[in-house]
Amino acid sequence: MLGATLSRWTMSYFAAALIALVAAELLMTFGYGYPGAPVEAAETLVLVHLVALGWLSLLMCGALFQFVPVLVARPLYSDSLPLPTLACLVTGLAALLFSFLQMGGILTITFAFFPPAAALLAIGFGLVLWNLGRTLWPARPLPLPARFVAVGLCSIAATVTLGIIFTLVLGGVTDNPHLVDVVASGVPLHAIAGLGGWLTFTAMGVTYRLLAMFMLAPELGGPRSHAGFYCGTAALTVAIVGGVTAICLAASLTLVLFAAGLFGLCAILFYGADILHLYRARKRRVIELNSRMAAFAMAGLAASVILIVVLAARGVLAQHAGAVIFLVAFGWLSGLGLAKLYKIAAFLTWLECYGPVLGKTATPRVQDLAVERRAIRWFLLYFLAVWTATAALLLEMPAVFQTCAGLMLIASLGIIVQLVRIRRLVDVSVTMRLPPGVSVPRLLLCSVRHD
Hints:
This protein is mainly alpha-helical. The protein is built from 14 helices and no strands. Helix 2 packs antiparallel against helix 3 (82-103) and helix 7 packs parallel to helix 9. The radius of gyration is 21 Å and the shape is globular. It starts with 9 loop residues before the first helix and ends in an 18-residue tail after the last helix.
């Protein structure tokens, strides 16, 4: 990535995402939402969307604005659009959370928040789709990781469309019978499109490139990788398109989801085999902390799949859906996000500060910006807390879950402190920290661009 263009606002997206993560973990620590409230309760909806939109989606958007150009070797279509995009997404999320509080009778303001929430989020994600779509379109035929991202973008379009339908019906704007049916039965489709398509499928594509790049492993694109891509695409198509069709035609949604699940299972198996190959074929024998912790996240994905299969076979999947979603959101997606964020922050900071003077003066290495032996304790605490919290949900032990959520909060704050230290160059040796032409970067903004 030497010579890559830095996305000016990526660090701002990461900061907003981390604030949402801390807020969500704080709420869980104090027993707000599930399991202290029903899955369908307003408090739980606030918590779920704070994690899915505020933490995971903002993190993903910030990462994609930086790495989609890397995937296709083309500059981002517009570097000015990410700022208004971020403003729309944050204000739209705030309006959506107010809407849920209003719906639960917690907020008594008479202003209708659902319509502006739908409009702002639609505009925000529309700008994401436009900017990334215009970056990807001229680069056809797309390399395999970029194809995963393209399908993920289609999935967020479906997620937002379903979300708009929910807000229009719940906000009393429409009583169209088909839309009412979608709201009544379409929550699983909304979750699959968001967690499965937008977040998981996109993360799969990005990790193909990042793991290969950071571990010096050969990039994958063989028959197995393509089979995983096609199976995953089929799973999402069957679930979203087939699911909505089944709801509107009063057909069996269970049968559609079962078929989608089979395709999805195949996709995960192919992906898992590819990831194992990357770790085994790497040239960097001693891998860095981010890749080691990414393996923990992959274990979370595997555990999520096993848990879904076991619970479905026992006929209690619906009863423990909260535990499954928690493990997917925090064991897999959040674990992977935090692991890669640790490396990305160092890599982008190094590019911003030392890339322009490389070859002109002595500069530190990327790994010199971070102290892994200090950060690893926070990552291990985080994953241990997530796994224990999942067990507490399955065993219906809310007090234990709250304790684990508190440990997750402490671990996340510890990781955030390490990210700030990286960004402020605190751990770089004094003799190499600020050579001529280098200054300490701003915390939330990449101010240097180079091609």
